[in-house]
Amino acid sequence: MAFPLSSAEQHKYRKEGFVVRPRVFDPPEIDDMRDQCERLIERLVRNRKTKRQKFGSYTFDSDMDNGVIIKWEGDSDVVHGIEPFAHLSLELKTWALDPRFVDPMKDLIGTEAPMLFTEKLNLKRPRYGGVNPLHQDYPYWVQVAQEAKDICTAMLFLDDSTLANGCLHVAPGSHLGGKWQGRADTDRFGSNEIDESIYDDLDLIAVEVPAGSVILFGPMLVHKSLPNTSSKQRRALLFSYQPAGRRTQLEALKEGIRKSP
Ligand SMILES: O=C(O)CCC(=O)C(=O)O
In Å, what is the CA distance from 86 to each residue of 49, 74, 121, 161, 245? Predict the structure, then answer.
């Protein structure tokens, strides 16, 4: 393996629940991915005028012709994100198979052949990009995946990610505390969001990273991100892997099983 986890990274992952690898991809590679992402978004949302539904903090639009969920910034025409999308872009699917993603996943998941469970493109557009509320991925996935506990995510930042444009915040060690308590003041989907008022001693750190950096984390890590109040983009690709042969998010969508955040 060319990019396995070092023993220091394995230690940090066990203790804190995440690992940061700065500048894994170089600027021309990031340019290519940004370009593919923008083309895909343009193709999916051009002239789209379908009914949207609000669940928890999100506004959804299910595009079942393309097998993709589009998340919008409320009722605006600004896209918040899409999922899953590997079946819609051979180029982005090929990037997801890059050993810089797959090699560390072999160590994290403990499998020789990690395969994609789902893929998200999260956009925080300048001045519009909204919040991703405090959550663990596990409760969203537990009804969709065959073994949600085995899914790990590589989040690649396509832009410099700062406090101002909505970088990721993580709670080190939070993955060791089981499932955190969800909101009781919203719909069933929204109850997957963590009730922040219960955890007033929550210790979140902001992970500011340059474009091309990757954060690796598991399904129990508590994390969130804030709105983009800057004039700069904050785009990120999240590739989530699991052992081969298990149901994917796309298959679950086609079978009518619930969506994820
Ligand atoms: O894009 C972000 O900042 C948040 C990512 C995340 O937590 C998610 O999509 O579930």
Answer: 23, 25, 10, 24, 17
Task: Please tell me the distance between residue 28's alpha carbon and the centre of ligand 1 in angstroms.
Answer: 24
pLDDT in tens, 59-116: 999 999 999 999 999 999 999 999 999 999 999 999 999 999 999 999 999 999 999 9
Out of 57, 71, 120, mutate this one to test ligand 1's pocket (max ligand atoms within 8 Å of CB): namely 120
What structural domains does the chain harbor? 7-45+52-254 (2.60.120.620)
The owner of tokens 């709105």 is 227
Distance from the first to the final alpha carbon of the chain: 32
3-state secondary structure 98-118: CHHHHHHHHHHHHCCCEEEEE
Q: Is the Cβ atom of 219 under 6 angstroms away from ligand 1? A: no
Give the helix/strand (H/E) hosting 168.
strand 168-170
**Ligand 1 atom closest to Cα of residue 166:** 3
Residue 223 CA: nearest ligand 1 atom is: 7
User: Is there an atom of ligand 1 within 6 Å of 225 CB?
Assistant: yes
- Please indicate whether residue 17, judged by its CB atom, sits closer than 6 Å to ligand 1: no
Starting at the edge strand found earlier in the chain, the sheet holding 223-225 runs: 132-135, 223-225, 168-170, 205-207
pTM score of the predicted model: 0.97
